[in-house]
Design goal:
Order of helices and strands: HHHHHHHHHHHHHHHHHHHHHH
Oligomer: single chain
Strand content: under 5%
Largest sheet: none
Number of strands: 0
Protein backbone atom coordinates (compact mmCIF):
# COMPACT_ATOMS: atom_id res chain seq x y z
CA UNK A 1 0.00 0.00 0.00
CA UNK A 2 2.92 2.36 0.67
CA UNK A 3 4.22 1.90 -2.87
CA UNK A 4 0.74 2.24 -4.34
CA UNK A 5 0.26 5.57 -2.59
CA UNK A 6 3.60 6.78 -3.95
CA UNK A 7 2.51 5.82 -7.46
CA UNK A 8 -0.77 7.70 -7.01
CA UNK A 9 1.07 10.88 -6.03
CA UNK A 10 3.29 10.68 -9.08
CA UNK A 11 0.38 9.81 -11.36
CA UNK A 12 -1.45 13.00 -10.38
CA UNK A 13 1.61 15.10 -11.12
CA UNK A 14 2.17 13.41 -14.50
CA UNK A 15 -1.41 14.16 -15.54
CA UNK A 16 -1.08 17.77 -14.36
CA UNK A 17 1.98 18.16 -16.63
CA UNK A 18 -0.12 17.20 -19.67
CA UNK A 19 -2.74 19.95 -19.41
CA UNK A 20 -2.02 23.17 -21.30
CA UNK A 21 -3.49 25.58 -18.77
CA UNK A 22 -5.64 28.51 -19.87
CA UNK A 23 -6.31 28.61 -23.63
CA UNK A 24 -5.82 32.08 -25.11
CA UNK A 25 -5.74 31.16 -28.80
CA UNK A 26 -6.96 28.21 -30.83
CA UNK A 27 -5.10 26.21 -33.45
CA UNK A 28 -1.55 27.13 -32.46
CA UNK A 29 -0.28 23.56 -32.02
CA UNK A 30 -0.62 22.16 -35.51
CA UNK A 31 1.88 19.42 -36.41
CA UNK A 32 3.75 19.32 -39.74
CA UNK A 33 1.70 18.26 -42.76
CA UNK A 34 3.18 14.77 -42.99
CA UNK A 35 2.40 14.05 -39.33
CA UNK A 36 -1.10 15.50 -39.65
CA UNK A 37 -1.74 13.23 -42.65
CA UNK A 38 -0.93 10.17 -40.55
CA UNK A 39 -3.15 11.32 -37.69
CA UNK A 40 -6.11 12.06 -39.95
CA UNK A 41 -5.69 8.77 -41.79
CA UNK A 42 -5.60 6.92 -38.46
CA UNK A 43 -9.00 8.33 -37.52
CA UNK A 44 -10.61 7.87 -40.93
CA UNK A 45 -9.63 4.20 -41.26
CA UNK A 46 -10.74 3.28 -37.73
CA UNK A 47 -13.35 5.04 -35.59
CA UNK A 48 -15.04 6.89 -38.47
CA UNK A 49 -15.83 3.59 -40.21
CA UNK A 50 -17.96 2.44 -37.25
CA UNK A 51 -19.32 5.63 -35.66
CA UNK A 52 -20.15 7.87 -38.60
CA UNK A 53 -19.57 11.57 -37.95
CA UNK A 54 -18.05 13.19 -41.04
CA UNK A 55 -18.87 13.24 -44.71
CA UNK A 56 -15.40 12.06 -45.61
CA UNK A 57 -15.01 13.51 -49.16
CA UNK A 58 -16.18 16.90 -47.91
CA UNK A 59 -13.82 16.75 -44.93
CA UNK A 60 -10.87 15.82 -47.15
CA UNK A 61 -11.64 18.74 -49.45
CA UNK A 62 -11.74 21.16 -46.50
CA UNK A 63 -8.52 19.58 -45.21
CA UNK A 64 -6.71 20.33 -48.47
CA UNK A 65 -8.03 23.89 -48.45
CA UNK A 66 -6.78 24.32 -44.89
CA UNK A 67 -3.21 23.48 -45.81
CA UNK A 68 -3.42 25.71 -48.87
CA UNK A 69 -4.43 28.69 -46.72
CA UNK A 70 -4.45 27.96 -42.94
CA UNK A 71 -5.29 31.55 -41.99
CA UNK A 72 -8.52 31.46 -44.02
CA UNK A 73 -9.93 28.29 -42.44
CA UNK A 74 -12.97 28.68 -40.21
CA UNK A 75 -12.40 28.19 -36.49
CA UNK A 76 -15.01 25.42 -36.35
CA UNK A 77 -13.07 23.40 -38.94
CA UNK A 78 -9.80 23.95 -37.06
CA UNK A 79 -11.40 22.57 -33.88
CA UNK A 80 -12.90 19.67 -35.83
CA UNK A 81 -9.55 18.87 -37.44
CA UNK A 82 -7.75 18.97 -34.10
CA UNK A 83 -10.23 16.50 -32.60
CA UNK A 84 -9.78 14.18 -35.57
CA UNK A 85 -6.02 14.35 -35.05
CA UNK A 86 -6.43 13.82 -31.29
CA UNK A 87 -8.20 10.52 -31.94
CA UNK A 88 -5.75 9.55 -34.66
CA UNK A 89 -2.82 10.35 -32.34
CA UNK A 90 -3.73 7.24 -30.35
CA UNK A 91 -2.63 5.15 -33.32
CA UNK A 92 0.50 7.16 -34.16
CA UNK A 93 2.88 4.92 -32.20
CA UNK A 94 2.85 2.34 -29.43
CA UNK A 95 3.92 4.81 -26.72
CA UNK A 96 1.27 7.47 -27.51
CA UNK A 97 4.07 10.01 -27.89
CA UNK A 98 1.60 12.68 -29.05
CA UNK A 99 -0.58 12.39 -25.95
CA UNK A 100 0.22 15.93 -24.73
CA UNK A 101 -0.80 17.42 -28.09
CA UNK A 102 -3.97 15.31 -28.07
CA UNK A 103 -4.83 16.60 -24.59
CA UNK A 104 -4.33 20.19 -25.74
CA UNK A 105 -6.56 19.69 -28.81
CA UNK A 106 -9.31 18.19 -26.65
CA UNK A 107 -8.99 21.01 -24.12
CA UNK A 108 -9.25 23.63 -26.88
CA UNK A 109 -12.46 22.00 -28.12
CA UNK A 110 -13.91 22.13 -24.60
CA UNK A 111 -13.04 25.83 -24.36
CA UNK A 112 -14.53 26.50 -27.81
CA UNK A 113 -17.84 24.92 -26.82
CA UNK A 114 -18.28 27.08 -23.71
CA UNK A 115 -17.29 30.37 -25.33
CA UNK A 116 -20.43 32.48 -26.08
CA UNK A 117 -22.65 32.49 -27.98
CA UNK A 118 -23.91 29.03 -27.07
CA UNK A 119 -26.57 28.99 -29.78
CA UNK A 120 -23.91 29.59 -32.39
CA UNK A 121 -22.59 26.09 -31.68
CA UNK A 122 -25.94 24.42 -32.45
CA UNK A 123 -25.09 23.69 -36.06
CA UNK A 124 -24.27 20.49 -37.92
CA UNK A 125 -20.58 21.37 -37.63
CA UNK A 126 -20.97 22.11 -33.93
CA UNK A 127 -22.75 18.80 -33.39
CA UNK A 128 -19.97 16.95 -35.20
CA UNK A 129 -17.46 18.62 -32.89
CA UNK A 130 -19.44 17.53 -29.83
CA UNK A 131 -19.48 13.92 -31.08
CA UNK A 132 -15.78 13.95 -31.88
CA UNK A 133 -15.08 15.48 -28.48
CA UNK A 134 -16.90 12.66 -26.68
CA UNK A 135 -14.74 10.10 -28.52
CA UNK A 136 -11.50 12.08 -28.16
CA UNK A 137 -11.96 12.56 -24.41
CA UNK A 138 -11.87 8.79 -24.03
CA UNK A 139 -8.95 8.15 -26.35
CA UNK A 140 -6.84 10.98 -24.88
CA UNK A 141 -7.95 10.28 -21.29
CA UNK A 142 -9.30 13.77 -20.64
CA UNK A 143 -12.00 13.04 -18.09
CA UNK A 144 -12.83 9.86 -19.97
CA UNK A 145 -14.88 8.47 -17.09
CA UNK A 146 -17.18 11.52 -17.25
CA UNK A 147 -18.04 11.29 -20.95
CA UNK A 148 -21.56 10.05 -20.18
CA UNK A 149 -22.34 13.53 -18.80
CA UNK A 150 -21.08 15.15 -22.01
CA UNK A 151 -23.06 12.71 -24.16
CA UNK A 152 -26.20 13.64 -22.22
CA UNK A 153 -25.68 17.24 -23.31
CA UNK A 154 -24.95 16.02 -26.84
CA UNK A 155 -28.22 14.05 -26.91
CA UNK A 156 -30.27 17.05 -25.81
CA UNK A 157 -28.48 19.31 -28.29
CA UNK A 158 -29.48 16.88 -31.05
CA UNK A 159 -33.08 16.94 -29.86
CA UNK A 160 -33.03 20.75 -29.67
CA UNK A 161 -31.92 20.79 -33.32
CA UNK A 162 -34.71 18.36 -34.23
CA UNK A 163 -32.54 15.39 -35.14
CA UNK A 164 -34.93 13.10 -33.27
CA UNK A 165 -37.56 13.88 -35.91
CA UNK A 166 -37.19 12.37 -39.34
CA UNK A 167 -36.30 14.95 -42.01
CA UNK A 168 -39.42 13.93 -43.97
CA UNK A 169 -41.46 15.56 -41.18
CA UNK A 170 -39.44 18.77 -41.25
CA UNK A 171 -39.30 21.64 -43.77
CA UNK A 172 -37.97 20.56 -47.15
CA UNK A 173 -34.22 20.00 -47.27
CA UNK A 174 -31.78 18.38 -49.65
CA UNK A 175 -31.20 14.64 -49.57
CA UNK A 176 -27.63 15.27 -48.47
CA UNK A 177 -28.70 17.34 -45.46
CA UNK A 178 -31.38 14.82 -44.53
CA UNK A 179 -28.95 11.89 -44.59
CA UNK A 180 -26.33 13.76 -42.57
CA UNK A 181 -28.95 14.41 -39.88
CA UNK A 182 -29.96 10.74 -39.84
CA UNK A 183 -26.34 9.64 -39.60
CA UNK A 184 -25.52 11.98 -36.73
CA UNK A 185 -28.62 10.96 -34.80
CA UNK A 186 -27.75 7.30 -35.27
CA UNK A 187 -24.23 7.94 -33.91
CA UNK A 188 -25.56 9.93 -30.96
CA UNK A 189 -27.81 7.02 -30.00
CA UNK A 190 -24.89 4.58 -30.15
CA UNK A 191 -22.71 6.84 -28.00
CA UNK A 192 -25.51 7.32 -25.47
CA UNK A 193 -25.95 3.55 -25.14
CA UNK A 194 -22.21 2.85 -25.05
CA UNK A 195 -21.46 5.44 -22.36
CA UNK A 196 -24.49 4.33 -20.32
CA UNK A 197 -22.97 0.86 -20.23
CA UNK A 198 -19.54 2.26 -19.33
CA UNK A 199 -20.83 4.43 -16.47
CA UNK A 200 -23.65 2.23 -15.18
CA UNK A 201 -26.15 4.98 -15.98
CA UNK A 202 -29.70 4.47 -17.19
CA UNK A 203 -30.03 5.09 -20.96
CA UNK A 204 -32.29 8.08 -21.50
CA UNK A 205 -33.25 7.15 -25.06
CA UNK A 206 -35.92 4.76 -26.22
CA UNK A 207 -37.49 3.89 -29.58
CA UNK A 208 -40.51 5.98 -28.58
CA UNK A 209 -38.52 9.22 -28.24
CA UNK A 210 -37.66 9.46 -31.94
CA UNK A 211 -39.16 8.74 -35.34
CA UNK A 212 -35.94 9.32 -37.30
CA UNK A 213 -35.46 6.59 -39.90
CA UNK A 214 -32.26 4.64 -40.45
CA UNK A 215 -29.67 6.32 -42.68
CA UNK A 216 -29.43 5.15 -46.27
CA UNK A 217 -26.98 2.34 -46.99
CA UNK A 218 -24.91 4.37 -49.43
CA UNK A 219 -21.32 5.51 -49.92
CA UNK A 220 -20.39 9.08 -49.09
CA UNK A 221 -19.36 9.93 -52.63
CA UNK A 222 -22.68 8.69 -54.03
CA UNK A 223 -24.54 10.72 -51.45
CA UNK A 224 -22.67 13.87 -52.45
CA UNK A 225 -23.44 13.18 -56.09
CA UNK A 226 -27.08 12.49 -55.19
CA UNK A 227 -26.79 9.21 -57.10
CA UNK A 228 -30.14 7.53 -56.45
CA UNK A 229 -29.12 4.59 -58.60
CA UNK A 230 -26.72 3.50 -55.87
CA UNK A 231 -29.16 3.65 -52.97
CA UNK A 232 -28.45 -0.01 -52.07
CA UNK A 233 -31.54 -0.43 -49.89
CA UNK A 234 -31.27 -4.22 -49.96
CA UNK A 235 -27.72 -4.08 -48.59
CA UNK A 236 -26.42 -6.32 -51.35
CA UNK A 237 -23.02 -4.58 -51.38
CA UNK A 238 -20.76 -3.19 -48.69
CA UNK A 239 -20.81 0.61 -48.31
CA UNK A 240 -19.47 3.31 -46.03
CA UNK A 241 -22.63 2.96 -43.89
CA UNK A 242 -22.92 -0.83 -43.76
CA UNK A 243 -21.19 -1.31 -40.39
CA UNK A 244 -23.17 1.43 -38.64
CA UNK A 245 -26.42 -0.04 -40.00
CA UNK A 246 -25.44 -3.58 -39.01
CA UNK A 247 -24.82 -2.37 -35.46
CA UNK A 248 -28.13 -0.51 -35.50
CA UNK A 249 -30.06 -3.74 -36.02
CA UNK A 250 -29.14 -4.94 -32.53
CA UNK A 251 -29.71 -1.53 -30.90
CA UNK A 252 -33.14 -2.29 -29.41
CA UNK A 253 -31.96 -5.51 -27.76
CA UNK A 254 -28.79 -3.88 -26.39
CA UNK A 255 -30.89 -0.97 -25.12
CA UNK A 256 -33.27 -3.37 -23.34
CA UNK A 257 -30.32 -5.03 -21.60
CA UNK A 258 -28.89 -1.78 -20.20
CA UNK A 259 -32.30 -0.42 -19.30
CA UNK A 260 -32.90 -3.49 -17.14
CA UNK A 261 -29.38 -3.56 -15.66
CA UNK A 262 -29.06 0.15 -14.87
CA UNK A 263 -32.56 0.78 -13.56
CA UNK A 264 -32.73 2.06 -9.99
CA UNK A 265 -33.65 -0.02 -8.09
CA UNK A 266 -32.70 -3.13 -10.07
CA UNK A 267 -35.94 -4.94 -10.87
CA UNK A 268 -34.76 -7.68 -13.20
CA UNK A 269 -35.21 -11.35 -12.43
CA UNK A 270 -33.23 -14.29 -13.70
CA UNK A 271 -36.13 -15.18 -15.99
CA UNK A 272 -35.89 -11.69 -17.49
CA UNK A 273 -32.17 -12.26 -18.03
CA UNK A 274 -32.80 -15.53 -19.88
CA UNK A 275 -35.50 -13.96 -22.07
CA UNK A 276 -33.23 -11.05 -23.00
CA UNK A 277 -30.45 -13.56 -23.68
CA UNK A 278 -32.62 -15.41 -26.18
CA UNK A 279 -33.60 -12.19 -27.93
CA UNK A 280 -30.06 -10.93 -28.05
CA UNK A 281 -28.59 -14.16 -29.39
CA UNK A 282 -30.91 -13.90 -32.39
CA UNK A 283 -29.65 -10.36 -33.02
CA UNK A 284 -26.04 -11.47 -32.61
CA UNK A 285 -26.44 -14.31 -35.10
CA UNK A 286 -28.09 -11.93 -37.58
CA UNK A 287 -25.25 -9.44 -37.10
CA UNK A 288 -22.54 -12.06 -37.67
CA UNK A 289 -24.39 -13.44 -40.70
CA UNK A 290 -24.66 -9.96 -42.22
CA UNK A 291 -20.94 -9.27 -41.80
CA UNK A 292 -20.13 -12.51 -43.63
CA UNK A 293 -22.72 -12.16 -46.40
CA UNK A 294 -21.03 -9.63 -48.68
CA UNK A 295 -19.91 -11.06 -52.03
CA UNK A 296 -16.19 -11.99 -51.96
CA UNK A 297 -15.71 -10.30 -55.32
CA UNK A 298 -16.64 -6.89 -53.91
CA UNK A 299 -15.57 -4.62 -51.09
CA UNK A 300 -15.38 -6.27 -47.66
CA UNK A 301 -15.54 -4.96 -44.08
CA UNK A 302 -12.14 -4.50 -42.48
CA UNK A 303 -10.86 -6.60 -39.60
CA UNK A 304 -11.08 -3.53 -37.34
CA UNK A 305 -14.77 -3.07 -38.15
CA UNK A 306 -15.73 -6.73 -37.70
CA UNK A 307 -13.80 -7.17 -34.46
CA UNK A 308 -15.02 -3.93 -32.86
CA UNK A 309 -18.66 -4.57 -33.74
CA UNK A 310 -18.54 -8.09 -32.31
CA UNK A 311 -16.83 -6.82 -29.15
CA UNK A 312 -19.55 -4.19 -28.66
CA UNK A 313 -22.18 -6.90 -29.03
CA UNK A 314 -20.46 -9.38 -26.74
CA UNK A 315 -19.90 -6.73 -24.11
CA UNK A 316 -23.69 -6.42 -23.87
CA UNK A 317 -23.87 -10.18 -23.34
CA UNK A 318 -21.22 -10.00 -20.60
CA UNK A 319 -23.12 -7.16 -18.91
CA UNK A 320 -26.40 -9.09 -19.05
CA UNK A 321 -25.05 -12.10 -17.16
CA UNK A 322 -22.42 -10.41 -14.98
CA UNK A 323 -24.78 -9.83 -11.99
CA UNK A 324 -25.05 -13.61 -11.64
CA UNK A 325 -21.36 -14.45 -12.04
CA UNK A 326 -20.73 -14.59 -8.30
CA UNK A 327 -23.82 -16.71 -7.74
CA UNK A 328 -22.79 -18.95 -10.64
CA UNK A 329 -19.51 -19.74 -8.90
CA UNK A 330 -21.36 -20.96 -5.81
CA UNK A 331 -24.72 -22.21 -7.13
CA UNK A 332 -25.15 -24.62 -10.08
CA UNK A 333 -28.53 -22.99 -10.83
CA UNK A 334 -26.68 -19.95 -12.21
CA UNK A 335 -23.87 -21.83 -13.94
CA UNK A 336 -25.27 -20.84 -17.35
CA UNK A 337 -24.58 -17.18 -16.61
CA UNK A 338 -21.11 -18.02 -15.37
CA UNK A 339 -20.40 -19.88 -18.61
CA UNK A 340 -21.76 -17.07 -20.81
CA UNK A 341 -19.73 -14.39 -19.01
CA UNK A 342 -16.49 -16.34 -19.14
CA UNK A 343 -16.81 -17.53 -22.75
CA UNK A 344 -17.80 -14.06 -23.98
CA UNK A 345 -14.87 -12.55 -22.08
CA UNK A 346 -12.47 -15.06 -23.64
CA UNK A 347 -13.84 -14.37 -27.14
CA UNK A 348 -13.66 -10.61 -26.59
CA UNK A 349 -10.05 -10.77 -25.46
CA UNK A 350 -9.06 -12.94 -28.40
CA UNK A 351 -10.86 -10.50 -30.71
CA UNK A 352 -8.75 -7.68 -29.29
CA UNK A 353 -5.56 -9.67 -29.77
CA UNK A 354 -6.15 -12.30 -32.49
CA UNK A 355 -2.46 -13.23 -32.56
CA UNK A 356 -3.00 -14.81 -29.14
CA UNK A 357 -4.90 -17.68 -30.77
CA UNK A 358 -1.86 -18.70 -32.82
CA UNK A 359 0.86 -18.06 -30.23
CA UNK A 360 2.29 -21.19 -28.62
CA UNK A 361 1.64 -21.92 -24.96
CA UNK A 362 4.65 -21.08 -22.82
CA UNK A 363 5.84 -23.26 -19.99
CA UNK A 364 7.80 -20.44 -18.36
CA UNK A 365 6.63 -19.08 -14.97
CA UNK A 366 3.90 -16.46 -15.07
CA UNK A 367 5.98 -14.07 -12.97
CA UNK A 368 9.51 -13.66 -14.31
CA UNK A 369 12.38 -13.46 -11.86
CA UNK A 370 14.45 -11.25 -14.15
CA UNK A 371 14.14 -7.68 -15.33
CA UNK A 372 13.48 -8.53 -18.99
CA UNK A 373 9.83 -7.45 -19.02
CA UNK A 374 7.75 -8.20 -22.10
CA UNK A 375 5.67 -5.49 -23.76
CA UNK A 376 3.10 -5.91 -26.51
CA UNK A 377 3.69 -5.20 -30.16
CA UNK A 378 0.63 -3.51 -31.73
CA UNK A 379 2.20 -2.60 -35.07
CA UNK A 380 -0.38 -2.78 -37.85
CA UNK A 381 -3.30 -3.51 -35.51
CA UNK A 382 -5.42 -0.43 -34.81
CA UNK A 383 -7.80 -2.09 -32.37
CA UNK A 384 -4.97 -3.51 -30.27
CA UNK A 385 -3.27 -0.10 -30.25
CA UNK A 386 -6.45 1.61 -29.07
CA UNK A 387 -6.62 -0.99 -26.30
CA UNK A 388 -3.05 -0.22 -25.21
CA UNK A 389 -3.01 3.56 -25.62
CA UNK A 390 -6.58 4.84 -25.13
CA UNK A 391 -8.71 5.13 -22.00
CA UNK A 392 -12.40 4.83 -21.22
CA UNK A 393 -14.28 2.23 -23.26
CA UNK A 394 -11.10 1.08 -25.00
CA UNK A 395 -9.43 0.26 -21.69
CA UNK A 396 -12.54 -1.31 -20.17
CA UNK A 397 -13.11 -3.87 -22.92
CA UNK A 398 -9.68 -5.38 -22.27
CA UNK A 399 -9.40 -5.01 -18.49
CA UNK A 400 -12.90 -6.31 -17.76
CA UNK A 401 -12.44 -9.33 -20.02
CA UNK A 402 -9.02 -10.17 -18.61
CA UNK A 403 -10.13 -9.89 -14.99
CA UNK A 404 -13.15 -12.13 -15.63
CA UNK A 405 -10.93 -14.74 -17.29
CA UNK A 406 -8.33 -14.59 -14.50
CA UNK A 407 -11.05 -14.94 -11.85
CA UNK A 408 -12.40 -18.03 -13.63
CA UNK A 409 -8.92 -19.48 -13.93
CA UNK A 410 -8.26 -18.91 -10.24
CA UNK A 411 -11.65 -20.34 -9.23
CA UNK A 412 -11.50 -23.49 -11.35
CA UNK A 413 -8.02 -24.29 -10.07
CA UNK A 414 -9.22 -23.96 -6.48
CA UNK A 415 -12.28 -26.09 -7.24
CA UNK A 416 -10.20 -28.91 -8.68
CA UNK A 417 -10.11 -31.88 -6.29
CA UNK A 418 -7.55 -34.15 -7.96
CA UNK A 419 -4.56 -35.50 -6.01
CA UNK A 420 -1.93 -33.78 -8.12
CA UNK A 421 -1.51 -30.04 -8.87
CA UNK A 422 -4.45 -28.42 -10.71
CA UNK A 423 -4.37 -28.22 -14.50
CA UNK A 424 -5.42 -24.80 -15.86
CA UNK A 425 -7.33 -24.34 -19.10
CA UNK A 426 -4.78 -23.35 -21.77
CA UNK A 427 -6.94 -20.58 -23.29
CA UNK A 428 -7.52 -18.99 -19.88
CA UNK A 429 -3.85 -19.29 -19.00
CA UNK A 430 -2.96 -17.65 -22.33
CA UNK A 431 -5.11 -14.62 -21.45
CA UNK A 432 -3.49 -14.31 -18.02
CA UNK A 433 -0.01 -14.61 -19.50
CA UNK A 434 -0.87 -12.01 -22.18
CA UNK A 435 -2.55 -9.56 -19.81
CA UNK A 436 0.62 -8.87 -17.83
CA UNK A 437 2.53 -7.27 -20.75
CA UNK A 438 -0.75 -5.57 -21.74
CA UNK A 439 -1.00 -3.72 -18.43
CA UNK A 440 2.71 -2.93 -18.52
CA UNK A 441 2.42 -1.59 -22.08
CA UNK A 442 -0.47 0.65 -21.00
CA UNK A 443 1.64 2.19 -18.23
CA UNK A 444 4.54 2.73 -20.62
CA UNK A 445 2.08 4.43 -23.00
CA UNK A 446 1.09 6.94 -20.32
CA UNK A 447 -1.51 5.19 -18.16
CA UNK A 448 -1.05 6.44 -14.57
CA UNK A 449 -3.38 4.01 -12.79
CA UNK A 450 -1.24 1.03 -11.80
CA UNK A 451 -3.88 -0.96 -9.91
CA UNK A 452 -4.83 -3.08 -12.91
CA UNK A 453 -1.25 -4.26 -13.33
CA UNK A 454 -0.96 -4.78 -9.57
CA UNK A 455 -3.96 -7.09 -9.28
CA UNK A 456 -3.23 -8.96 -12.51
CA UNK A 457 0.29 -9.68 -11.22
CA UNK A 458 -1.00 -10.67 -7.79
CA UNK A 459 -3.52 -13.06 -9.33
CA UNK A 460 -0.81 -14.44 -11.59
CA UNK A 461 1.29 -15.08 -8.49
CA UNK A 462 -1.63 -16.94 -6.92
CA UNK A 463 -2.22 -19.05 -10.03
CA UNK A 464 1.50 -19.83 -10.23
CA UNK A 465 1.44 -20.86 -6.58
CA UNK A 466 -1.48 -23.23 -7.25
CA UNK A 467 0.31 -24.69 -10.28
CA UNK A 468 3.37 -25.28 -8.09
CA UNK A 469 1.21 -27.15 -5.59
CA UNK A 470 1.36 -24.55 -2.78
CA UNK A 471 -1.45 -24.42 -0.27
CA UNK A 472 -2.46 -22.67 2.94
CA UNK A 473 -0.40 -19.70 4.04
CA UNK A 474 2.41 -20.58 1.63
CA UNK A 475 0.28 -19.54 -1.36
CA UNK A 476 0.25 -15.92 -0.14
CA UNK A 477 4.01 -15.61 -0.54
CA UNK A 478 4.06 -15.54 -4.38
CA UNK A 479 1.01 -13.21 -4.30
CA UNK A 480 2.72 -10.58 -2.17
CA UNK A 481 6.06 -11.05 -3.88
CA UNK A 482 4.50 -10.47 -7.33
CA UNK A 483 2.60 -7.43 -6.06
CA UNK A 484 5.66 -5.82 -4.51
CA UNK A 485 7.80 -6.42 -7.59
CA UNK A 486 5.09 -5.03 -9.87
CA UNK A 487 4.66 -1.85 -7.84
CA UNK A 488 8.42 -1.27 -7.84
CA UNK A 489 8.41 -1.57 -11.65
CA UNK A 490 5.48 0.85 -11.92
CA UNK A 491 7.13 3.36 -9.62
CA UNK A 492 10.30 3.36 -11.69
CA UNK A 493 8.36 3.85 -14.94
CA UNK A 494 6.27 6.71 -13.53
CA UNK A 495 9.37 8.37 -12.07
CA UNK A 496 11.09 8.29 -15.47
CA UNK A 497 7.99 9.71 -17.18
CA UNK A 498 7.68 12.56 -14.70
CA UNK A 499 11.35 13.48 -14.96
CA UNK A 500 11.12 13.35 -18.77
CA UNK A 501 8.06 15.63 -18.74
CA UNK A 502 9.82 18.11 -16.48
CA UNK A 503 12.87 18.21 -18.75
CA UNK A 504 10.68 18.75 -21.81
CA UNK A 505 8.85 21.65 -20.14
CA UNK A 506 11.94 23.08 -18.48
CA UNK A 507 10.07 22.95 -15.19
CA UNK A 508 10.56 21.13 -11.94
CA UNK A 509 8.27 19.67 -9.34
CA UNK A 510 10.98 19.72 -6.72
CA UNK A 511 8.75 21.60 -4.30
CA UNK A 512 5.94 19.10 -4.71
CA UNK A 513 8.19 16.05 -4.80
CA UNK A 514 10.78 15.24 -2.22
CA UNK A 515 12.26 12.14 -3.76
CA UNK A 516 14.03 11.21 -0.53
CA UNK A 517 10.72 11.00 1.29
CA UNK A 518 9.10 9.03 -1.51
CA UNK A 519 11.97 6.57 -1.76
CA UNK A 520 12.55 4.42 1.31
CA UNK A 521 16.14 4.23 2.51
CA UNK A 522 18.46 1.52 1.27
CA UNK A 523 15.93 0.44 -1.33
CA UNK A 524 13.63 -0.94 1.39
CA UNK A 525 10.11 -0.88 -0.10
CA UNK A 526 8.10 -0.88 3.10
CA UNK A 527 6.12 1.60 5.12
CA UNK A 528 6.60 1.79 8.89
CA UNK A 529 2.95 2.69 9.31
CA UNK A 530 1.84 -0.60 7.76
CA UNK A 531 2.68 -3.65 9.85
CA UNK A 532 0.58 -6.09 7.80
CA UNK A 533 -0.45 -6.16 4.12
CA UNK A 534 -3.98 -4.88 4.86
CA UNK A 535 -5.66 -4.63 1.48
CA UNK A 536 -4.40 -7.13 -1.07
CA UNK A 537 -5.25 -10.40 0.67
CA UNK A 538 -8.89 -9.48 1.53
CA UNK A 539 -9.47 -8.20 -2.01
CA UNK A 540 -8.27 -11.44 -3.54
CA UNK A 541 -10.30 -13.52 -1.10
CA UNK A 542 -13.48 -11.58 -0.32
Amino acid sequence: MAILNRCKVMGRSIKAQRYPGIINKFGTNMPPRDVANKLVDGYLRSVETVFRVLLVPSFKSDYEQYWAAPDKASLSFVIQLQLVMAIGATLYDSRFSMRKSAVQWVTEAQYWLIVPPAKGKLTISGLQIMILLSIARETASVGGDLVWIHVGSLLRSGCYMGLHRDPSRLPTMSRLDAEIRRRLWNTILELELKTSGDSGGFPTVSPETSDTKAPADIDDIDLMNDDKQNHNEAGERFTDMSIALALRESFRDRLAIYQMLNATPFRGTYDDTIQLHRRFMKSLKTLMKRLKAYPPSGRQPTAFQCRLVEIIARRSLISLHLPYLGAGIKEPAFSFSRKEVVESAVKSYYLLFPSLATSPNSSSPLISDGDDLEVLSTEGDDLARFTVCAAGFWRLIASQSSMIVILELQTTMQEEDSIGPPTPRPDLLNVLRHSLPLYLSRIQAGETNVKGYLFAAALAGHVQGLIDGLSGSKVTEPILSAAMKTEKICFDILKQQLESAERADGSSNAEQFAWDSLMATNGEWTDNSVSQPPALYPLLYP
